[in-house]
Amino acid sequence: MDVSQEQSSGVIKEGFLVKSGHIVTNWKTRWFVLQPDKLLYYKYESGKKEARPRGKIPLTGCKVTCPCLEYENRPMVIKLQTPSSVEYFLEASSREDRDMWASHIIDAIHTLSPGESCNMGSDNAPLDLNNVNLRQVIDSMRDIRTGIRLVNHSEQGNSFKKCFTGSALIDWLVSKNLVLTRFEAVTLASTLLDESLVKPLGVKSSEAIRNGDLAEQFLDDSTALYTFSEMYKRRGSVKNEIALSAVELSGKVVKQGYLLKQGHKRKNWKVRLFVLRAEPDYLHYYDPSKEENRPAGGFPIRGCLVSALEDNGVPTGVKGNVQGNLFKIITQNDVHYFIQATSKGDRQEWIAAIKQLA
Description:
Blueprint: H1 5-8, E1 13-20, E2 27-35, E3 38-42, E4 44-45, E5 48-49, E6 55-58, E7 63-66, E8 77-81, E9 87-91, H2 95-112, E10 119-120, H3 134-141, E11 151-155, E12 158-165, H4 166-175, H5 182-194, E13 198-201, H6 202-211, E14 225-228, E15 234-235, H7 244-248, E16 252-262, E17 269-278, E18 282-286, E19 297-300, E20 305-308, E21 326-330, E22 336-340, H8 344-357
Parallel strand pairs: 7-10
Antiparallel strand pairs: 1-2, 1-9, 2-3, 3-6, 4-5, 7-8, 8-9, 11-12, 12-14, 12-15, 13-14, 16-17, 16-22, 17-18, 18-19, 20-21, 21-22
């Protein structure tokens, strides 16, 4: 994954992002390289970045929106808008990665054009949370044009209509300048819960209310579900028997990020979003080009063996001329997973995180 000398000069940040197409609005994973005056993106083939970029986004005069709420099922999206009103939608692997990309891009834009405005949080003073008009907040949330988007979700075998995730509400509160920080947004959302203006849906958010303090009971989480009190509707009933897949996905997220994975049948390399969870300990991977939130695969971590592979030459079991930053996971059922990280440091972090749970 080495960057050529010509392109690596002045590199501020690089890594995988999922990009929406302009003509055919499908999502494809690309390797992005942020330089002081532009953002380049490359296609990946057979575990390697192509030599020539597929596109270039000049940063002068661009505006950044983060969080971007135009895709309800993609809360990790950043929007770049050029002076000619061309819009680029880029999805990161986590909120931390999203905010880091946005911060670096905004810094580069400000260096090129001091004074350019970017919507990363708010420059205005937040509402006084001690005297906030909660009904006004709810009315704003329910606005048909600018309010929070209500979508359908599933959790542990139950289907819920017209609801929103915890992280979606936190993103919305920050983007609407109602608060200055995510911590304040969690506090405000918890107050909405305490005043019975918002209700939890499902196990995860309900348990947070039972176990958490006021400022902690609302989960800034993409899997915790909530809805408006008067719109509290649920299809189905709570089941005593929870599907195995739902149990697997109920653990606490320990680490997540984009990695390349070799297929078991075709042996081709694809970028996948990997999510490592604890209690229960599972590693799942998702196809970032698809809208659905269901994992493409996964396995329990307990009893797995994980090790780094040599960076010199192509290791045994690896197809194609794929070298560098590789590691292997062998499950209890003797299934071998070959994975490529974006850097040596990233590989070490993933191996260490998996070993703690194995």
